[in-house]
Design brief:
By secondary structure, the chain is an alpha/beta fold. It has 15 helices and 19 strands. Helix 4 links the parallel strand 5 and strand 6.
Length: 461
């Protein structure tokens, strides 16, 4: 992983090039104090301080540079310096104004498992702000962790490798991890997880991480860990299968959030549950028409083997609810319908708790991490009725797909249990500064902000 802390250096007063962040309304004032040469270059390059604009100018000394970084008219968000970080040459840079650092860090992170790392990038000199520095580095590390896991192809990120990644993160913070694998899932009463993954070469598994003081409020985070989704016997067309290495994006986001909780020392008893399986095809694959029991006792008629993520989550939610935690959050790349409704950048939030939804919106606004709530419209639960089982796993027809999937999950969460479900794309479909095309931890910053607000002050680090 990128050594993010090396990209931020405490200012020793030594030589450095200058980085000048500018909003359009501040450009004229800066030009009035600039040299004639700089004014001429700004005019020649038609620099307007629009968001993402970067202009390199010669500095006052031969070895120094001056960089203007456009902020745009909106309030600077966490990626305000991302374009600058990706375009500036290596060296020491001193900013004339303090700005969020996350974009500076993530713009210099690259997925390098299969390709050589790029050269070292620019370093930012900081005043003595260790808490802000640590927080920025921690968020960058968690985001990069999720991105790297999602970007790894299924040949190298199956259920076993996902379990190893969870255990490795847990070991850093003294957590314990237990994994139930293969046929042991039947004995432990996780029949849906077993059914989804039994056709794959790698056995399915439930990964269960525990951390923190048992006397603290219980927080359970759940991730959908489908490491590749062929669609099963309801096989996906090729153009829909190409990105299915990212179908464990919910698990990657859940693990990144768990890492932040542990690293910050939040006063909670954390439980991370990842239901990991590959939805594959073989002679023993689950079939349309099969009826499968669940941990909660409900029977499920399989109407679509490509609606598998909600099945593994159902068993994990049932397990989580047995402890009656203070909050359950689940993350899943669950439906294409959510993307049709909201596009790739807005994860869909579902919760029956209006106060919890309001808190998420507050956290999303504060962290510039957008989300959108969709309704758990109760009448649509009729679409999940089965004449021969307690429910079907996929409603008939193309309408309200994200809502009916969330209602399926809700059936495994007891009434009154605080719970929120994120239907996330977990992917950047187009590159933006600090956000390359590929895996993404959507709603991570908002979720962590909500948890820190809800469960109290962090411990000293």
């Amino acid at each position: 992983m990128t050594e993010f802390s090396a990209l931020l250096v405490l200012d020793d007063g030594g030589p450095a090039s200058r980085l000048v962040p500018l909003a359009p309304e501040a450009l004229d004032a800066w030009l009035r104090t600039a040299s004639e040469r700089h004014r001429s270059l700004v005019a020649a390059h038609r620099f307007k301080a629009a968001a993402g604009e970067v202009l390199l100018l010669p500095g006052d000394a031969p070895a120094e540079l001056l960089a203007l970084a456009g902020l745009g008219s909106a309030a600077p968000g966490p990626f305000a310096l991302a374009a600058a970080a990706s375009r500036l040459p290596p060296g020491r840079w001193r900013s004339t104004a303090p700005l969020p650092l996350l974009g500076w860090l993530l713009a210099q992170h690259h997925f390098t498992r299969y390709k050589a790392a790029t050269n070292a990038g620019p370093r930012m000199l900081l005043a003595s702000e260790p808490v802000a520095l640590r927080d920025a580095v921690a968020m960058a590390e968690a985001t990069a962790l999720a991105r790297d896991l999602i970007d790894t192809p299924a040949a190298d990120m199956g259920p076993a490798e996902l379990a190893a990644a969870v255990a490795a993160q847990g070991r850093q913070f003294g957590a314990t991890t237990n994994t139930i694998v293969g046929e042991a899932l039947i004995d432990a009463n996780f029949p849906l997880i077993h059914a989804v993954g039994r056709a794959a070469a790698q056995a399915p598994r439930l990964i269960d991480l525990a951390w923190g003081d048992p006397a603290h409020p219980r927080l359970t985070i759940i991730g959908k860990g489908i490491t590749f989704d062929s669609g099963g016997l309801n096989i996906k067309p090729g153009n829909s299968m190409g990105l299915m290495k990212k179908d464990m994006g919910g698990a990657a986001t859940a693990l990144a959030l768990a890492r932040l909780v542990m690293q910050a020392g939040l006063p909670v008893r954390l439980r991370l549950l990842v239901a990991a399986a590959e939805n594959s095809i073989s002679a023993n694959a689950m079939r349309p028409g099969d009826i499968i029991a669940s941990r909660a006792g409900k029977t499920i008629e399989i109407t679509n083997t490509d609606a598998e993520g909600r099945l593994v989550l159902a068993d994990a939610l049932a397990l989580a609810a047995e402890e009656k935690p203070a909050l359950i959050l689940d993350f899943a790349t669950l439906t294409g319908a959510a993307r049709v409704a909201l596009g790739p950048e807005l994860p869909a939030l579902f919760t029956p708790d209006d106060a919890l939804a309001a808190d998420f919106y507050t956290a999303a606004g504060a962290t510039h991490d957008p989300l959108a709530r969709l309704p758990l419209w109760a009448p649509y639960a009729d679409m999940l009725k089965s004449p021969i089982a307690d429910m079907v796993n996929s409603a008939d027809g193309p309408m309200a797909g994200a809502i009916t999937a969330a209602l399926f999950l809700k059936a495994f969460v007891p009434a009154g249990q605080p719970w929120a479900h994120f239907d996330t794309f977990a992917w950047n479909s187009a590159a933006r500064p600090g956000r390359p095309k590929g895996g993404e931890a959507l709603a991570l910053r908002a979720s962590f902000a909500l948890l820190t607000a809800r469960f109290g002050a962090r411990f000293a680090r």
